Amino acid sequence: MSPDIDEKAIRHADAKTLTLLISRAKADALVDKVTEPSLLICSDQVIVHNGVIREKPVTADECREYLRSYEHSPAVCVVSVVVVNTLTGKRVEGTDIATQHFNKIPEHAIEALIAQGDVMHCAGGFTVEHMEEYTNRLEGEIECVTGLPKTLTVKLLEEAKRV
User: Which of 32, 44, 61, 118 is catalytic?
Assistant: First the structure.
């Protein structure tokens, strides 16, 4: 189910706040569309690189710039999750952070990643699933890097279930 919100209309200079605001907006847009008692999960991810928030790259050139930059400093993945119990209206939320370090990504690999296309639809212009040979140290959960932190999400689901 797509929330059909304009994420670009929601802005904030702080990555945690930005991802929480977008996750809340997604939940607000979807909660009335859920017709059966459910636990609705909404999330958003941005990448912070050298203090700058990166969302999905707009152009292939921007994606190239992103991918080239990660050998010099890591990608800090910031993911917020909002869980809504549609039966009770209870809402819980949280944010997780993981830091992914990369080795140098060769130009031929950058071009192949862009041609394949997935990186153009991901915050920060990368997908670790297609870049294993270029990943280095990970600080935090891999699920945070891939977009939905497992430990945080399970914790929030348990909290939302409690009446």
Answer: 44
Q: Where are the domains of the chain?
A: 7-161
6 labelled catalytic? no
For domain 7-161, the CATH architecture is Alpha-Beta Complex (3.90)
pTM given for the model = 0.95
Which has the closest alpha carbon to 93: 46, 44, 129, 60? 44
Q: Please give the single-letter amino acid code of residue 146.
A: T
- Taking only Cα atoms into account, the Rg of the chain, rounded to an integer number of angstroms, comes to 17
The pLDDT profile of the chain, 163 residues, written as one tens digit per residue, is 999 999 999 999 999 999 999 999 999 999 999 999 999 999 999 999 999 999 999 999 999 999 999 999 999 999 999 999 999 999 999 999 999 999 999 999 999 999 999 999 999 999 999 999 999 999 999 999 999 999 999 999 999 999 6
